[in-house]
Amino acid sequence: MAVTKEIKTTFLLAYPVVLSQLGQVGVGIADTMMVGRLGALPLAAASLANSIFFVTMMFGIGISMGLTPLVSMGDGKGRFKRISRLFTHSLWINSALGIILFFLIVGFSQFLGVLDQPKEVQELALPYLLIITASLIPMMVFQTFKQFAEGLSQTKQAMFITIFSNLVNVFLNWLLIWGMWGFPEMGMNGAAWATLISRVLMMVLMAAYVLSTKRFAQYQLRFFKVRFSRPMLARILKIGVPTGFQFIFEVSAFSAAAIMMGWIGVNALAGHQIALNLASISYMMATGVATAGMIRVSHFIGKGDLGAMKEAGRVAFGMVAAFMFVCALLFFAFRFFLPTLYIDDPEVISLAASLLILAGFFQISDGVQVVGLGVLRGMEDVKVPTLVTFFAYWALGLPLGYLLAFKLGLGESGIWIGLLIGLTITAALLYYRFEQLSKKKALLSKSS
Q1: Are residues 268 and 223 part of one domain?
Q2: 419 in a domain, yes or no?
Q3: What is the pLDDT of residues 171-214, one digit of tens each?
């Protein structure tokens, strides 16, 4: 009965995060499709700018996630003043980081030539990159309010705000790209302005909700007039910085895999992108379970209920394994149909179908490892999981993929097999670490 209740609670926490993530994926697809109607050159320029921006953004999101487990622990202990101070310190960190990342990209943008892209692509990408980079600042403020609310198990509001703002983004794309209803025709830069405006809207709406609702009134949130605490800043960053690097290692690894696919040929790269795009949809859903697991684990640690903590973590692992198993079956069953939603080239469809078989096996390992990172983050264990992530992708998965693809002649399948092996080992190691830390915490609790 207790397990059933925990499954229900985890699901109710997870599904809003899942819908928010899917909304982000959906608006990215919509942006790409709308810019793509302008032609191949604007699409290539937008892709270049977005690839630079995305890695930076993911690092920032990782830093902001340092707040959530600490707020959840504080909630478990009933320490409202501490939660308020955590929020303020996180807001300082994230606001400053948004500004720093903005200027880092502005500086790097002057050296786009080192990426060896066509000159006309660089020229179009530069203004687009600078505009979307400005959206980092409101986005990091939004993340502060979002992670604060999620730490208190309030995940629905961020979902509604994210989906609404993304719909506004698509509408603004239509207005600004083609100059509808008397608005200026900005081309691809219109899409960048739409992104900036929608993220400012997200920040304003999320802040207004958190600061005005009675649910959070007891925390008496402040922006200033809070005693500066270096230990508190350090504790947030101790979780946030490794989480940011976890994201970077993963995003950059798949970028490297795409580059290796390009060495094989255009069809291999196209098939890889289709399979990866489909896998990313289920992955985004798995991150919702990971977030819910992180919240539940840290909440029970705060309450001092280590038995419930262990059960919450196991429930999250079990839920994601079951969900990803269903996704794997769907990939197997519809492997020849799903690629036709992207392209009508028979060779690419056949290649993508073969990769979807590997993607099916990939699903379970990927889901378990992302939940492992989440629940361990809830236990404030981030250094070892970050090293494990680096090992999985860069020390094992990619080198093994290269060996299988280019030295042993397995081609595009070899790259995916390498990543699959790396992820499977990672999933096993992270689950083992969760069990060991849970046991260690229980023993320390009994001895104290």
Answers
A1: no
A2: yes
A3: 998 999 888 888 888 888 898 899 899 999 999 999 999 998 88
CA distance 148 to 86: 9
Is 143 inside a domain boundary?
yes
**Contact in structure between 123 and 188 (CB atoms under 8 Å):** no
> At which residue do the structure tokens 């915490």 appear?
441
Same domain, 358 and 435: yes
Residue 161, domain extent: 15-228
The string of DSSP codes covering 226-292 is ----HHHHHHHHHHHHHHHHHHHHHHHHHHHHHHHHHHH-HHHHHHHHHHHHHHHHHHHHHHHHHHH
Residue 263 falls inside a structural domain: yes
Closest CA to 243 of 65, 428, 426: 65
Do 190 and 251 fall within a single domain?
A: no
Q: Tell me the C-alpha distance between 23 and 10, whole Å.
A: 20
Predicted TM-score (pTM) of this structure: 0.84
Q: Kindly state whether residue 306 falls inside one of the protein's structural domains.
A: yes
Listing DSSP states for 161-190 in one string gives HHHHHHHHHHHHHHHHHHTGGG----THHH
Task: Tell me: do 370 and 428 sit in the same domain.
Answer: yes
pLDDT of residue 448: 57
Q: What's the structural domain count of the chain? A: 2
Burial degree of 124 (CB within 10 A; 0-12, 13-18, 19+): buried
Q: What is the DSSP letter of 10?
A: H
Rounded CA separation 350/373 (Å): 34
Paired tokens of 177: 């790209």
